[in-house]
Write a structure and sequence with these properties.
heterodimer; A: mainly alpha; B: mainly alpha; two-stranded antiparallel sheet; 74% helix; globular
Chain lengths: 125, 511
């Protein structure tokens, strides 16, 4: 199960990185989303996958017996999902505002903060 | 059902000592104040006083925390009463307390400076809550003893720093924030990947527990983990070759924001490198030390060369920040106690001195109406700014009696002792380049007669230079009386190299 999962995670990573290498910011953002989901699946697989037995104890038991599903990765992923979702939302708005102001979403042309052809400092006075 | 369940095996049954609550104060206080300020966003005149008062209280709390850690050892507070490693343990050792203390003082100085230099629109859009929440994330990263929790604090300060960077929404800010945002998000995602693998391999996220378990593992892919963490944190620290986001963004926002970021944020990356590589993966760090030395050398030389090529003084300071990170990383690359102590001391110096220098650059640019070295001049008619510029030049270039001198001596001496010949050469070459850069800055802005009289005459209303003076005084103190700082940095480095006390503090008697 984990082996199949890791193949899937690898596929997600490859797709995410491919998109992030693009010059268009919208594609980069989509790449970041895929990348983030790859990480979520990775954490899920890292916690070992076991779906039949929930980690619930009977009232008279003091500890879990046998193998049960691991609840911790889900808590970690939930945190990561919330964070990456809010970042994505913010970056999407930021990209749109930048597009409105600068008129491009091409990273090569996005040179407002670091303009091309800046002069070197004076050599003397 | 059986009688009352015995919970001593899973939960903490004794109350946390009152003094240990200090571990959570530097986080809880600004979170509460930040959230309150968001609710009070219509009352603009309340924003600044509440924020500054909170930052002052946080500074006091971190100082008290430092004193407590210094006198009675590592402070641990475990959340939710679950015994470690299940509860999240805030674990404050000398290193964490030292960084938190310095960062809080810098944040306070920036908060005070922001009172005058942040205009009403920025206040309406929540400048002060963002400042408080960034400081929450930074303090959280310094104080936590759980690696996933550290990731969460990284994200907290990252997303609040977006707010600080972009508020005002000029075209340059939007451009800078976009690059800063995307690249830093990728950096923290790498951090999360590494943490996912770490959990898969070790089954624990508590740092003290990781310290115990790492030596027991044979053949686990720990080098992969260490390399991933190195990449992620190098990105946060703006080390070569993943430093591009810093010079793209740090000169765009209000100068107080630049000052806070330039002083504090890259040092969180350096702190995380120290914490994770030295404490958790010492064997792997030894294997990576060759790579680290290259990274450090190229970072500091390229940073200094970049600074040399800038005619905008704020962009120049951005490159100086990068160059300083290289010196801290060379401490890591050498890896001996004195080298790490030198790197830690350099980080403290850099937080204080570079924040002050950004504020100074703001004053100079405000006064002349431009930040370009082609236009600036005639500063010698303002003795105060000239004096500050002179002292900070000495501090950052590492000339006596400035604060950069002693940590650089410590790192260079350690490098020579460890036979790192070319790393030593790189440190000295980058220092020389920094001296040339700052010397030219001083020559052009102070000695050269003013070029643009007309602009000077108009002038903007001058803000209060208090925070800049205070930080400069601290930097000078570090240079004139370095003994306590050297001692503190040495103890912080010893705590990293010998984690027995750290583990003992978290797990106490239990095994």
């Amino acid at each position: 199960m984990e082996a199949v999962f890791s193949l899937l995670v690898g596929l997600f990573f490859a797709a995410g990185i491919y998109l992030m290498l693009s010059k268009a910011i919208v594609r980069i953002l989509l790449g970041i989303v895929v990348f983030g989901n790859a990480v979520n699946l990775l954490i899920f697989a890292a916690g070992r996958i076991m779906r039949e037995v929930p980690p619930v104890m009977a009232p008279d038991m003091m500890q879990l017996t046998g193998q049960t599903a691991n609840p911790l990765p889900q808590a970690l992923i939930l945190t990561a999902i919330v964070i990456s979702f809010s970042f994505f939302a913010f970056l999407l708005v930021l990209t749109f505002r930048t597009y409105q102001e600068v008129g491009t979403d091409d990273t090569v042309k996005l040179r407002v903060a670091e303009p091309e052809g800046e002069v070197l400092p004076p050599m003397g006075y | 059902m059986a009688g009352p369940i015995d919970i001593t095996g899973a939960m903490i049954t004794t109350a946390t000592p009152a003094g240990d609550w200090l571990a959570i104060v530097p986080i809880a206080l600004p979170i509460i104040a930040g959230a309150s300020l968001l609710m009070l966003r219509k009352r603009l005149h309340w924003q600044a006083p509440i924020a500054v008062a909170t930052l002052a209280l946080v500074s006091l709390a971190t100082m008290a925390l430092f004193v407590r850690v210094w006198t009675s050892g590592t402070v641990v507070m475990t959340m939710g009463r679950w015994l470690p490693p299940f509860g999240i343990s805030f674990t404050v050792d000398v290193l964490g307390a030292l960084f938190a203390c310095t960062a809080s003082l810098v944040a306070l100085a920036c908060g005070v400076a922001a009172v005058q230099s942040i205009e009403r629109p920025a206040r309406r859009y929540g400048y002060f809550p963002f400042l408080l929440l960034t400081s929450v994330g930074v303090n959280g990263a310094f104080l936590t003893g759980d690696i996933f929790n550290m990731y969460v604090w990284f994200e907290v300060f990252l997303i609040s720093s977006f707010g600080l960077l972009v508020v005002g929404s000029t075209r340059a800010q939007l451009d800078g924030t976009l690059k800063y945002g995307v690249l830093n998000l990728i950096g923290t995602t790498l951090f999360l990947i590494a943490t996912g693998y770490l959990y898969g391999v070790l089954g624990t996220l508590n740092m003290a527990d990781i310290v115990r378990k790492v030596p027991q593992l044979d053949g686990a892919p720990l080098m992969t983990l260490a390399a991933l963490y190195l990449t992620a944190f190098a990105m946060k620290a703006a080390a070569f070759p993943v430093q591009a986001w810093l010079p793209a963004a740090y000169h765009t926002p209000n100068v107080v924001t630049s000052a806070f970021f330039g002083g504090v944020l890259t040092k969180v990356g350096v702190y995380a490198l120290l914490r994770v590589l030295v404490l958790l993966f010492p064997m792997q760090l030894a294997g990576l030390s060759g790579v680290m030395a290259w990274i450090a050398a190229v970072t500091m030389v390229l940073g200094a060369l970049g600074a040399l090529a800038q005619s905008d003084i704020r962009r120049m300071v951005g490159f100086l920040v990068i160059s300083g990170v290289g010196v801290m990383l060379s401490g890591l690359a050498i890896g001996t106690g004195p080298a790490l102590a030198g790197g830690i001391f350099y980080a403290l110096h850099s937080m204080v001195a570079l924040t002050a220098f950004y504020l100074l650059a703001g004053f100079i640019a405000d006064r002349a109406g431009s930040a370009s070295l082609h236009v600036l001049g005639g500063l010698s008619s303002v003795p105060l700014l000239t004096g500050v510029a002179f002292i900070l030049m000495l501090c950052i270039a590492g000339l006596p009696p400035g604060s950069g001198l002693w940590p650089k001596i410590m790192v260079v001496r350690a490098a020579l002792e460890a036979q790192h010949g070319w790393l030593t050469a790189a440190i000295l070459v980058s220092s020389l380049l920094t001296i040339i850069t700052l010397g030219r800055f001083f020559l052009l802005t102070v000695w050269r007669p003013a070029v643009a009289d007309a602009v000077l005459a108009e002038g903007k209303r001058s803000s209060w230079p208090g925070p800049m003076l205070a930080l400069t005084a601290v930097a000078l103190l570090m240079g004139l009386y370095p003994e306590p700082f050297v001692q503190a940095a040495s103890r912080a480095a010893d705590g990293l190299l010998d984690p027995a006390a750290y583990v003992q503090a978290v797990f106490g008697g239990q095994n």
